[in-house]
Design goal:
The structure is a single chain. The strands form two sheets. The chain has a three-stranded antiparallel beta sheet with strand order 1-2-3, with no helix packed on it. A two-stranded antiparallel sheet has the order 4-5. By secondary structure, it is mainly alpha-helical. It folds into two domains: 86 residues; 187 residues, hpI Integrase, Chain A. The radius of gyration is 21 Å and the shape is globular. It is built from 14 helices and five strands. A hairpin with a 4-residue loop joins β4 and β5.
């Protein structure tokens, strides 16, 4: 039996039982395994090939990513009652404690200025909407991509996120600047209910579109690392340093338990205070410049 068919069926199960973001995350790991391991069929699986793939993965991304990869592959195979002793017997590797990645203020300024200077096309409008929505809301990318036009309440400037990880709806405020972008999107009158739309491909904006956008930003703006979740981490850190209410933050982020939110209370509080001030200054400066 072909491995990619096994993974496809497992991903269909994940799509039914987990969030869209989790499904996309699993898909990324499983596709990497199929593409880089050289394994096409179950008969191709042996300790030597698996060992070579996992060693390569560890060298490329470290213990944390390798642990995730092994776990996802193991669960996908076990879903079909396929047990590979080598994989099942692998012990979890020790992971170093790493500070959550944030968007540095200098990089944020470059991103906002870049979006502001783009030609005023419909697709570029989507780019600006996406970046500014991530900045304002701290939402998960899957939550934003599932948002409909009717969910963006222009009159009181908040967006209702309905497809959440916890399956509980929540409302998050957004800025006047982002409100103006949403209004432009509404005025396009495209025959789609989705707020974020790929006008070139004539379909709702996808996770792959987001990955492509961030790769483009990294290449053109010379940013080493950039992904949507970094905006969520930065939003959380900035919120705590300017408001301090961790229970309010927990609600905004959609955490079912405030303990999850506690991870944003980094040890280096002085660094966070400087980060918050620089981050907010970069946003304010870029948005003022774009309005002039």
């Amino acid at each position: 039996m072909k491995v990619n068919l096994i993974f496809k069926k497992y991903l269909e199960f994940i799509a039914l039982t987990r969030s869209a973001g989790t499904k996309n995350w699993y898909c990324e790991y499983l596709n990497h395994f199929v593409t880089h391991s050289g394994i096409k069929c179950l008969d191709d699986i042996n300790e030597e090939v698996l060992s070579a793939y996992f060693i390569s993965k560890k060298t490329e991304a470290g213990n944390s990513t390798l642990n995730k990869s092994i776990g996802i592959i193991r669960r996908a195979l076990n879903y079909y009652n396929i047990e590979i002793p080598y994989i099942n017997n692998l012990k979890r590797l020790k992971e170093s404690v790493v500070r959550y990645q944030i968007v540095e203020a200098a990089d944020l300024g470059k991103i906002l200025r870049y979006c502001d200077k783009l030609p005023q096309t419909k697709n570029n409008l989507t780019y600006s909407m996406l970046i500014n929505s991530l900045i304002d809301t701290g939402a998960r990318i899957s939550e934003l991509l599932n948002a409909k036009i009717e969910d963006a309440k222009i009159y009181n400037r908040d967006i209702v996120l309905k497809h959440t990880k916890s399956s509980i709806e929540r409302s998050i405020p957004f800025s006047e600047y982002t409100s103006a972008l949403y209004q432009k999107r509404i005025d396009t009158k495209v025959n789609s209910d989705y707020l974020f739309y790929n006008f070139t491909k004539k379909r709702p904006y996808s996770y792959e579109d987001v990955v492509s956008l961030f790769r483009k930003l990294m290449a053109e703006l010379h940013i080493n690392t950039l992904h949507s979740h970094m905006f969520r981490h930065t939003f959380a850190t900035t919120f705590l340093e300017t408001n301090g209410n961790i229970f309010a933050l927990s609600t905004l982020l959609g955490h079912s338990n405030v303990t999850t939110t506690m991870r944003y209370l980094h040890e280096n509080q002085i660094h966070n205070q400087k980060l918050a001030k620089a981050y907010l200054a970069a946003i304010q400066l870029s948005r003022v410049d774009s309005s002039n």
